[in-house]
Amino acid sequence: MTHTDLASVLDGARVVPVLTVPSAATAGPLADALAAGGARCAEITFRTPDAEQVLRAMAAHGGLTVGAGTVLTPQQAERAVAAGARFVVSPGFDEEVVAKCCELGVPVVPGVASATELMRALRAGLDTVKLFPAEPLGGTPMLHALAAAFPQARFVPTGGIDAPRLPVYLAVPAVLAVGGSWMATAAHLQRGEYGEIRRLIAEAVHGSST
Ligand code: 3PG
What we know:
It is a single chain. This protein has helices at 3-13, 27-37, 51-61, 74-82, 95-104, 115-123, 134-137, 139-149, 166-170, 186-191, 194-206; strands at 15-19, 41-45, 65-69, 88-89, 108-109, 111-112, 128-131, 154-155, 178-180. By secondary structure, the chain is of the alpha/beta class. It has one domain: TIM Barrel, CATH 3.20.20. A 4-stranded parallel β-sheet has the order 3-2-1-9, with helices on both faces. A 3-stranded parallel β-sheet has the order 6-7-8. The longest helix has 13 residues, at 194-206. It is globular and about 45 Å long. Bound molecules: 3-phosphoglyceric acid. The site of 3-phosphoglyceric acid (3PG) has 12 residues, from strand 9.
């Protein structure tokens, strides 16, 4: 997958569910619930011991473009891609992670929290970044300010965003898609609430739960 391919997936996706999944046993029903709700992609965070197995199972299940999140090192990027990640997301901008992803030929979406970090990402040849953590950084006014200064940049704001705040982010022209965990939280997964996950995804993707 190229950066252009990923941009086109994100552009049509509206949301990127950010998932912290404790066990690969839930990968199948979770992937089904996401796809049934209309999700096109999902980000599996490297925050649990089983993250690689979850990623592998979700990627093998099909129906979604599955990427890895919270990738902090080049070694994690390698492991993520070996497990089937089609894209890599980082909470911050790290030259070595970006270089490793370029070497592996996998699109990377680094986090940026300032104009300086965005300049580094652009200089590394990237134009799609994750504004993280979006709400604490100032939300859509921050996005408008960055987009005005860097018209070539596209954003996937993530961090502190929920269903009521989603429309204002999606209304920003420079926003490709919005990331967040509210559609499939740890509590949903723990309780096996796949119907609720599907409903929340549908609400985010279609603007209604039907
Ligand atoms: C992330 O890892 O991208 C964020 O933790 C997701 O942010 P949220 O939990 O505030 O939606």
